[in-house]
Amino acid sequence: MLFSGLLQQIQRDGGEIELTTPEDWRQGRAIFGGLQTVLALQAMRGLVPELPLRTLQTTFVAPPSGDRVQASARVLRQGKSATHVEAHLLEGDNVLAVVLGVFGAARP
Fold first, then answer.
1. What does residue 86 show for φ and ψ, rounded to 5 degrees?
2. Sign, CA torsion 40/46/47/53
3. How much is the pTM?
4. Measured between alpha carbons, how far is 25 from 27 in angstroms, rounded to an integer?
5. Which of 2, 4, 57 is nearest to 33 (CA)?
């Protein structure tokens, strides 16, 4: 499956998304790390749709045991020019990855 087709299968609800990952997007038990980060970023974009992404940090906590994952995002702080957002990639109650993003408006 192409990456663009995979992204179209994401189910969205504001700062929360859900996706069933096909076998060809998995590496052993785990979902490819880049895909995990993109899913978390997609959840963040539900809360901060327009500001450019300035920095992103991902910590992989555990591999998923199934093929269905959720990502949930929340705004930590929103200032005049920067918005800090945290997302967790989850499988049930288990945290698979923690992603922190900073979105920022252009400065003169």
1. -115, 140
2. positive
3. 0.86
4. 7
5. 57
Q: Where are the alpha helices (DSSP H) in the chain?
A: 3-8, 33-45
What percentage of the chain reaches a pLDDT higher than 90? 54
Number of H helices and E strands in the chain, helices first, is: 2, 8
Give percent helix, percent strand, percent coil of the chain, each to the nearest 5.
20, 50, 30
Amino acid at the residue 42: Q
How far is the C-alpha of 69 from the C-alpha of 79, rounded, in Å? 31
Token pair for residue 80?
């005049």
pLDDT of residue 27: 74
